[in-house]
Amino acid sequence: MPQTDTDTFRFFTFLMFQTQTDRSTGAMPLPANRVMGSAFVAFGVTLLAGFLYVAVGSKALAPSDNWFLLAVQNDRYYCLLVPLTVPVIIVAVYLHWLSMKMFKHA
Membrane spanning segments where (predicted)? Predict the structure, then answer.
């Protein structure tokens, strides 16, 4: 008997939202994918905050005695990385759009 789309959807929904109860308290923890998603978001926010400190914040502070912070303050690579990445992203998005149009109308 062939599987229907509904059966496939139920199976993947079961896999994605599968939870296990704690036997001692009966509490249900968060699904594993929600915890992993939260971890990825927290990691991304941490990287963004670190990049913003390196690119913008460290340049506004007084020179430090710490050798590592002084090296971060004197670095000019990350200050120029994001502005130079924007045109590349625009070209990549345009080429992606163009290739999808060609594929759709071919």
Answer: 35-56, 77-97
